[in-house]
Amino acid sequence: MEILNILGIDLAELQNFAVFAIRFGFNLIATSLVVFLYARISRRKEFYFSYFAISAAVFLLVLLLQDVKLELGFALGLFAIFGIIRYRTDAIPPKEMTYLFVIIAVSVINALSKGYIGYFELSMVNLLLVGTLWVLEKALMLRQEDSLLVIYENIENLHKDKEENLLLDLEKRTGIKIKRYQILKIDFLRDVAQITIYFDVNGQTSKREVKS
After folding, report:
1. Helix%, strand%, coil% for the chain, nearest 5
2. Residues 143-180 as b or e (16 or more Cβ within 10 Å = b)
3. 3-state DSSP of the chain
4. What span, in angstroms and rounded, lies between the C-alpha atoms of 54 and 85?
5. Which of 10, 33, 86, 182 is 20 to 30 Å from the Cα of 150, by its Cα?
6. Which domains does the chain have, with CATH numbers?
7. Quick check: 205 pLDDT over 50?
């Protein structure tokens, strides 16, 4: 096995380094394809950084520790970390969690498949995962429903006979094609109402409160 040696110091085993570089490249390309697909159906850019960072971290962690004998307690604790990961600010929507799981799965496959499958099979596995996501998102045209809370002041449009005026006004103000709506509360003292509107989105999740 050829070893890179400088001044009597073994810096790297060239064969292992080549395998590492190739597999890291596979993982980076697969992750980029998944994130690119997610970016086309979602405008939540805050997840891009997380997906790339988690992918690289999981790949390196699994690859470098696959031959290390871990004590049972440490191993359980390591996997428990992934089980309790969550962001304190906002709950992660189901679709974003699904993409996060796919990112982790791709990283683990690319790191642990060394010695079991060749690069051609590895390419097929990565393409199969990405292709499945593409089919679900594009070919089947799965629609995701989202909601938005609106504080509405034209309460005269809440009359039963003015439902069409209400929908037209809400769509004009929000720029959203509304599927249905629900009146939560009417405050006649302040002449405002709380209305939840529901609409179809492609991966977009909005929980904003808008004053109109």
Report:
1. 55, 20, 25
2. eeebbbebebebbebeeeeeeeebbeebeeeeebebee
3. CCEEEECCEEEEEHHHHHHHHHHHHHHHHHHHHHHHHHHHHCCCCHHHHHHHHHHHHHHHHHHHHCCCCCCHHHHHHHHHHHHHCCCCCCCCCHHHHHHHHHHHHHHHHHHHCCCCCCHHHHHHHHHHHHHHHHHHHHHCCCCEEEEEEEEECCHHHHCHHHHHHHHHHHHHHHCCCCCEEEEEEEECCCCEEEEEEEEEECCCCCCCEEEC
4. 11
5. 86
6. 3-139 (no CATH), 144-211 (3.30.70)
7. no
DSSP 8-state class, residue 136: I
pLDDT digits (tens, 9 = 90+) for 59-114: 887 777 766 655 555 555 655 655 555 544 456 677 777 888 888 888 888 887 77
172-187 residue pLDDT tens: 888 888 888 888 888 8
For residue 209, the 8-state DSSP code is E
User: pTM to 2 decimals?
Assistant: 0.56
pLDDT for residue 203: 44
